[in-house]
Amino acid sequence: MTADDVLEEFRSAGALLQGHFILSSGLRSPTFLQKMTIFSDPVRTERLCRALAEAITARFGRIDIVVSPAIGGIVPGYETARHLGAKAIFVERDPGGPFTLRRGFSIPAGTRAVIVEDIVTTGLSARECLASLEGEAGEVVGAACLIDRSGGRGEIGLPLVSLAALDIPTYPADALPPELAAIPATKPGSRATVKP
C-alpha cells in the first residue's frame, strides 16, 4: 500500500478534515485526521493494519507483542497484532497520572515488542508509552503508525515506521497565520489538550 493509497483511504472515509483544529498537543492545525472514522469501518481498518504489519515486519523482523496507548491506539494495535501473529496489549492512564501497564500485561524476557500508534503528531503519546515500559524485561524494538503527520520530526526515542508521512503545519495558538486565525477553532480529538 502506497502513501497515496493510505491518504485516499482517509479521504474516501471523510476522515481528512480541513478547517482550524486544536490538537491534543495544544498546537493548532488547518488539517485534522479523524482516525475514528477509519476505525469504525472494519474492512478499511483491516486493509490499513495489514499494510502496517507488513511494514513492521520488513523493518523490525519478528514481533511478539504490540503495545498501544489507550484509547486511540487500541484498535490499530489489536488489528496490526492480528496480522503479525502477535499478542496485543495496551498502556492506560491512572486518573491524572502517566501511562502504565495494567490488567496483568507485561513484556516478558526474550520477547520483541513494537509500539503501534494511530497518528503521530509530536510523538508525545508514543514517548509516554515507551517511558511506561522501561522496567519490562522484553525488548521494545521500534514504533509504527498509520500516518506520521510530523513530517518525520516527531521524537519518540525509537525508530518509527509509518504508512504515510505528511508535513502538516502546526502553530502555537498565539502565532497563527491570518487565514487560520480567521476561522473558528474546534477540538475534534478526545484527549485533553496538553502544552507542547
List descriptors.
196 residues; alpha/beta; 6-stranded mixed β-sheet; 6 helices; 8 strands; 27% strand
Question: How is this structure best described in words?
Answer:
The chain has 196 residues and is α/β, with parallel strands linked by helices. Helices cover 30% and strands 27% of the residues. It has six helices and eight strands; from the N terminus they run H-E-E-H-H-E-H-E-E-E-H-E-E-H. The strands form two sheets. It has a six-stranded mixed sheet, with helices on both faces. A two-stranded antiparallel sheet has the order 1-2. A hairpin with a 5-residue loop joins strand 4 and strand 5. The longest helix has 19 residues.
Tell me the number of helical segments per DSSP (H or I, 4 or more residues long): 6
Rg, please? 16 Å
Query: Count the strands?
Result: 8
Terminal Cα span: 32 Å
How confident is the prediction overall: mean pLDDT? 92
List the helices and strands and how they pair.
Elements: H1 3-12, E1 16-22, E2 28-33, H2 35-39, H3 42-60, E3 65-69, H4 74-84, E4 87-93, E5 99-101, E6 112-120, H5 124-132, E7 139-148, E8 160-165, H6 178-181
Parallel strand pairs: 3-4, 3-6, 6-7, 7-8
Antiparallel strand pairs: 1-2, 4-5
Helix pairs in contact: 3-4
